[in-house]
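Researcher: Please generate the 3D structure of the following complex. Treat every line as part of one assembly.
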Amino acid sequence: MTIREIRILPPFAIGRLGSAEMPLDNFTIVGEPEKPLGFRKIVPQPTFLVDPETGAIASVHTPEKIEFKTADGKIRPVAPFLEVWARVDGEKGASASRTSGARHDGRKHGDFVPLTTELLAAHGASVKDLSFKVQVGNRKVERRTGHPGDRVEASISFSNHDDHALHGHSPNFLSPERYIDFGRIRFLKPTKKHPEIRLRFTPAKGLIYGPKLTPKEIQEMRDADPSVKNLHVVPDELAVYDKRKGWWKFSIPPAVRNADPSVDTFYNETLPPALFAIIPPGPTWLNNNVAVSRGYLDDACDGTVEVTLAPKKGEKLTAVGRIVVGPPALVPDSLFVRSLADDLDQVIFGPEIPMDEPDAITRARAEDIVRRAFETVRFLNVAVMNGNPVQGRDPLDIDTMPAEEAFDVYRMMRPVFAPHTADTLSIMGLHQKVYMALRAGALPWFPRLLRQPEEVGNFTDGGRRKMPALMAGADGNYLALTRRQIDTIARAATRARDENGEPQMIEADRDPSRLVPRNASAKSPARRAAELHYVAEGNPVSSRPIMSIGNCTPGLEVDFRAVWRRMFIGIELREYDNLVMTEAPEHEALHFHRLLRVEYPGADGATHGFDTTTTQIGPNPYNTATESVVLSYEANPNGVAPLEWSNLLARMIHERTGKTVTCFFTSAKADLDNPKYDPKQRATYLQRSFEIRPFFEGDTAVISQALAAPGELTQGLCSPWQNDYRECSCYYWAAARPDFVNVEASATGASVGDNWLQKVHDGEYVPDDYSDARLVLYDDLFNEWEKWLRFAIEGKDGPGEVKG
Amino acid sequence: MTSERTHRHVRGAAAPATKAAKARRSVGALPPRPAEMSGRDYLIMLLHIGAEIEHALMIEYLYAAYSLGGPQVGTHADTVHQWQDALVTVAREEMGHLISVQNALLLVGGPVSFERDDYPWSNPFCSFDFQLEPLTLRSLAKYVYTEMPPADSLERKADKETVAAVEALVGADARAPVGELYERIIALVNDREAVPDSAFHAGSYAYQMNWDEWGRSYRPASHKPYAKDPDVPPPHTRRATVLVERCATRTELATALSGIASQGEAEHLRSNAKTEPSHFDRFAHMFRDYQAILADEPDWSPSRPVPTNPVVARDAAYAPAGATPITADESRGWATLFNVRYRMLLTLLTSACGGPRDAMELLTVRRAPLIARIFGEMYNLKAIAGVLVRLPLGDPKDPARAGAPFQMPYTLVPPTPEVNFWRLQRDLLATSEGMVADLLARAQRKETQVGADGVAYLRGLREADAASAAWIDLVLAELTPQGPKPSTGRRGQK
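Model: Done. Output below.
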């Protein structure tokens, strides 16, 4: 028999930071049939205990309960396992696969089976023929400064069972000996009981690195804002960065405009800008947009794991998987309305539901979206997010979408919904009743209430009230579901309930055997999805994309906006708008021009096309015919808003991968006008054809390495990541990061509870305020993030969490 | 029943269902103002009748919508789904009318009203007897008739032919259309002698129901500011699909009532891609579709075999004349549950619209849960109605299915003070809880015709109600200094 191909499953594994010695035990979450509206139940799963000496799995146990934090307050890291799978053929191969599969609970993916020592032997190989290469990077600082020297990278090759440290080095560190500890990777030693080939990645502790400063420099920082009593000081052992290299005190002059050719120096800012630890006072937007860097780096990273099987005889085979590192999933018993899994599924299956999908499945997925919607509402302080005054304070001072609008597009601050109807438990209860009606067999009656991806810049009353409401999407405007999610609900609305069919349920962890048809071809989308969502033995649900944020501005686990930049082969776009940043020599003329429109011939012979921007509109009391006005202003005279790539490109990727499309670019380099596509100007645009890059590697579910090199999937995230819990635009994310906890009803009808980031959880809500010491502020997180980032279980502070 | 008593004032002059009456379209065909009533008093009574009719139409359309479906629709499933959507859309708009009429009542100082009679019930101001029935060509003809504009305003040949066919089918039974009631009301509103300026309480505007609370985004979107004709409709057509009109003056009231009256018939909304089609448009279109299908398949039915005027009763002896008892045990359990939730909805609505008048700040207290509960109960009714049409009416072997009974409670007069209103809600929850427990126990014993989805729904309802009950207990504790009264128990309506 012959091993024809190998794969690493899962192809995308999320590690999560924590300083506890023991990684988090394995768990999944399931809905409770008796309590369909309740929290998902955390169910411990078989957990591997790895012998630190030998690197072998010493035992398997299923814990009674899951302990997210240790008794001494340390968070247990999520350390995912990566399994190697093989496709075999030949007469013996088939039986060997069966044997192998049977021994391991019949686990199969189409014709792939777990690679074991037995299978290797049948192939005439052994573990000695296996080798591994791991490359991870942290490019957050490079993304801000634009200096390649600020890139931090770790690369290691090995074939033994040692626990290999991933030391990230950078030319701008004080010396080649200084490094950031990105964690460890280990090829587990196969045993008779556990003969599978697997690795384990253990992420870092969540430490903050930075420059080595003098006492005087530290004092100067303290003096900058004496109200910060606990200014974080990077300990000597973590002071790795050479402060002369630019990151320490890095700053972008506030008056400089992005992509403005009229200024001498171009600053390729992130969106939102800054996104790094600054010398007080913070935040920047309340302090004249002054952002001077403290020079911090973190130990998060992303990258690839490569396995090579090189038997003495036979073909050399390789496979790649991806690992990323994010903060803990702090709401481990809930799923949110748009996750990374939704975006990846959209790439795999396309933006529309196939006509032949069984109705029961479509209905179940529609119900799942509504279920996740009420799980999302549950953690939002709806009254606050609605833009209501909080305890009499000006809602403009509180970080919400209506306030963001006022700052971004100059729409007057006004609550989104009628203020006295905006309440968490009331609105959640309403969503729950929608869910129940669907469960009872009612068809979704609300497709028209869903926000379309092109409507994210509609700030009229009607536009703002579309669903999902009060939250931001990847483009910083109002969140829309993925096109595929929208189509799921629309399709379910037209499909009568199957009178004889059994209703289906979608759980967090899918059973791959039910999703992959036996005869699924290598290119089958269902097979690719099954690989993507594969539940590797020992891996908790929080290691999978379903628990990663999908509406990224920038994100928590990854800045998923970064993945689309090189979809057009030959150019690279900025992650959040349509500006050409780098390009192949033949496209040099496009440098800093803006991509305005894409066209291609559709299967129906007609030309399909889409603009890359939408127009921001707001209410207009004067024009009673249209009731709207373009929200334009000096900095954005056309009221243009770039659209997020995930939804924008979904149909094109589905229809044109590997084929060409025609792109239209501005004739002038990016200018102040933020132009939008104008058919009358079509002849003046630069027109080029580009091939669309495959999103995944070959037939696998591994995100193309050409789309994102190690470090690039996390480069847009905050540096350090702790900033993400305080920075703008994260207050209203649907993510495993709660906003409103310990919520209870009150007799007045207003839900009461705690701002998750207030230090004392006493039920007295503390409005967001960047200088109120009752809240967890920047330095609290830099100093004691594991103390202040509290897990919420069933909506309440988890066992052992500090109350304040 | 309020509406029965209302009839005392109109019955004597009720227009007979004769050919002469068919030639209607004249306000004179309606009963005159009784001598015993002042102009304002009469206006309030007519508004009550308007509310009753809007309520009745809404229920009829919903019942027809819920009846649609089943395996017999065959290849016309998509068409039937579109009809269902159209019926629900019109019902939703009737709900907007109902709320708007409450605003009118508040403006002229009348009590709000969600009352209506149970069937069979007739009213000289209503085109047909109120009747819950599955959608048939005949019942659809009645809806077309009810919503149709004056014949001389019809322009399209297809519409004229449809109206002729409808008249032939149901014209002999028809009385004055709803539009005539509104004509009478508007004439009265504009009659400064009959209804003096002092009758209008502009201050009520602040606590009238508004679109932000009740519209649920059911309105055409704003147009793009750079849109040009013909993409942009003229300003006078820029109206919500779900009308929730507030008014502070006599003129605004007349305008609001015209808007309500014309939504079904409004010519300027017809076939306009920029706005929603009129009620008449929707129903006439359905009627033509239906006719075309019957031409090929004369025995075809879009509806499940659901009853006319279903009621909860052990047998026919307990059912009023013209009603159909739901006799299967389990179906009756679900139907009773439906009635309890319907009562919850109506009492919540009455409270939300009637609310405190003396202190504005009180209007916002408990408002969010009140509004959420109202819409939540609408979703509950939708869910339970969907289950009922799949359950047997009597003998399980019989193809006849049950249906949502929509039976009215004995009263909707809100108990006062507020604590008693919440006691009532708590009682209704307890009653519902008992029924849910019984239905779940039946499922546990596998004595159920309901599938897994119905059971999942009951579990969810139980969970949601437990949270609601806990909250109401908090409210009762606050409103009752000595603490909450003990619950009346979970066995309410056995």
